[in-house]
Specification:
Layout: E1 2-5, E2 8-13, E3 16-21, E4 24-29, E5 32-37, E6 40-45, E7 48-53, E8 56-61, E9 64-69, E10 72-77, E11 80-85, E12 88-93, E13 96-101, E14 104-109, E15 112-117, E16 120-125, E17 128-133, E18 136-141, E19 144-149, E20 152-157, E21 160-165, E22 168-173, E23 176-181, E24 184-189, E25 192-197, E26 200-205, E27 208-213, E28 216-221, E29 224-229, E30 232-237, E31 240-241
Antiparallel strand pairs: 1-2, 2-3, 3-4, 4-5, 5-6, 6-7, 7-8, 8-9, 9-10, 10-11, 11-12, 12-13, 13-14, 14-15, 15-16, 16-17, 17-18, 18-19, 19-20, 20-21, 21-22, 22-23, 23-24, 24-25, 25-26, 26-27, 27-28, 28-29, 29-30, 30-31
Keywords: Membrane, Transmembrane, Transmembrane helix
Transmembrane segments: 30-52, 64-90, 96-116, 128-149, 155-174, 195-221
């Protein structure tokens, strides 16, 4: 069947229908419908709908919807949402979120976070955190922190701190402290202090002090003093001087 009147044309045959009018065309056949007009196209078939217009595209199907408009893309499906706009992409699903933008990627899931950017990577998983950057590595886990960079190493844990940098070594643990550097060595322990630098050594403990410098040695203890120097030795004790 063909009908034509006033610029309108209709054609129908065996399940096919075509309607044409100025600026509009509609076609239906076997569950498919197509509508075309200037700047607009619509297609429906088997539960799928597609709409296209300048700067806009919409796709809808059972359980899925996708839309793009002016540089924005949105996709929605059961348990999944994705969005992209101006260089930004966001994807969300149960227990998972992913974001990418301008060279940055962030991924988050239960117990896991990953961040990646040019020259930087950071990862946290359960109780572990790792950070990587040019010349720098940092790790924290179960109360332990380790940091490494050119010329520098640091370790921190409950009751323990250790640092090495530029020839300096420092260690502190359980009330004890040790320092080592060019021209300097020092140790402190409950009740004991030792210091050594070129030409000078000092030892201090409860009831005892020892000093050695430039050929001079001094020892002091309760009731006793000893002084030793080139050509001279002096000992003093209650009631006795030698």
């Amino acid at each position: 069947t063909v009908l034509a009147a006033l610029g309108l044309t209709v054609l129908a045959a065996l399940g096919l229908t075509v309607l044409a009018a100025p600026g509009l065309t509609v076609l239906t056949a076997l569950g498919l419908t197509v509508l075309a007009a200037p700047g607009l196209t619509v297609l429906t078939a088997l539960g799928l709908t597609v709409l296209a217009a300048p700067g806009l595209t919409l796709l809808a199907a059972p359980g899925l919807t996708a839309l793009t408009v002016l540089g924005l893309t949105v996709l929605v499906a059961p348990g999944l949402t994705a969005l992209t706009v101006l260089g930004l992409t966001v994807l969300a699903a149960p227990g998972l979120t992913v974001l990418t933008a301008l060279g940055l990627t962030v991924l988050a899931a239960p117990g896991l976070t990953l961040l990646a950017a040019p020259g930087l990577t950071a990862l946290t998983v359960l109780r572990l955190t790792v950070l990587l950057a040019p010349g720098l590595t940092a790790l924290t886990v179960l109360g332990l922190t380790v940091l490494a960079a050119p010329g520098l190493t640091a370790l921190i844990a409950p009751g323990l701190s250790a640092l090495t940098a530029l020839g300096l070594a420092f260690l502190a643990a359980l009330g004890r402290t040790a320092v080592s550097a060019p021209e300097l060595n020092a140790l402190t322990d409950p009740g004991l202090t030792v210091l050594a630098v070129p030409g000078l050594t000092v030892l201090a403990a409860p009831g005892l002090t020892v000093l050695a410098a430039l050929g001079l040695t001094v020892l002091a203890a309760p009731g006793l003093t000893i002084l030793g120097a080139p050509e001279l030795t002096l000992l003093t004790s209650p009631g006795l001087t030698v």
